Amino acid sequence: MNWISNFVRPKIRALVTKTEVPENLWHKCPSCAQMIFHRELESNLRVCPHCGHHMRIPARERLTLLFDDGDYNPIELPETPSDPLRFRDRKRYAERLREAQTKTESKEAVLVAHGRMGGRPTVIAAFDFSFMGGSMGIAVGEGLVAAARLAVLQEAALIVVPSSGGARMQEGILSLMQLPRSVIAVEEVKEAGLPYVVVLTDPTTGGVTASFAMLGDIALAEPGAVIGFAGQRVIEETIRETLPEGFQRAEYLLEHGMVDMVVHRRDLRDTLIRILKLLRDKMPPAEVVPLPQGDGKDAGKATARKPEAT
Ligand SMILES: [Zn+2]
Q: Measured in angstroms, how far is the CA atom of residue 264 from the centroid of ligand 1?
């Protein structure tokens, strides 16, 4: 590792691979194939105005969307070995990493930040799918541990927004070790009596679903998000059956009790604030009053009555 490979090469590559055409001003909705002007798409939080399809959004945009006034403090993720296995497929893993870093201007596939939501201290870890498919390697695992510890330190709620294809295969077993690590991380938040909420976005699959993503006290999902462990085709080939329509989509999971709410992106922030308020604000304690005497079967039992509003 030196400054030539870390700095100069990505810069040169960015210059060489730059497209001649200016960035496309029109986006085609992958769901309804309508053309949408980029400004309209941005003002609509990257939700198709024609069919309501929720497109993937970068982690930074997600954080701006959720925090009060879009104001947050990102934290520096701990240093981790970047290519422990010196893995290479068609390309070196180190090279893939550098490309993803140049493309997304992020160090890794997860971004951790703290700030306030509805005035309450909150830590959010948001995944960036455009960084190697949001895959979870050592650095992402470390990022989740850091997010959980920060939440405990600040007595803040932890919100995780996965958008990931699963474990990062270029890190082999080391990426699989992030599954138990991320589970322990969120367990620390729960043990401290702090809320842990997940917002499942498209896609939440593989090792991420097999670990922290399914452990939220409350699990929200964006409409139409693909959420599952193995892919639909793999399951169909294994069980040799056709799967029902909408299988592994947020709405299907809601119907089957795996998700608590499916929330439109424009309502996401308000919904989260309401949930955090319910979970964190202490309600007045219930008052225990004895039942009136002479009521045969319930005699002797006490009932809880809500105190009158003050
Ligand atoms: Zn559409």
A: 14
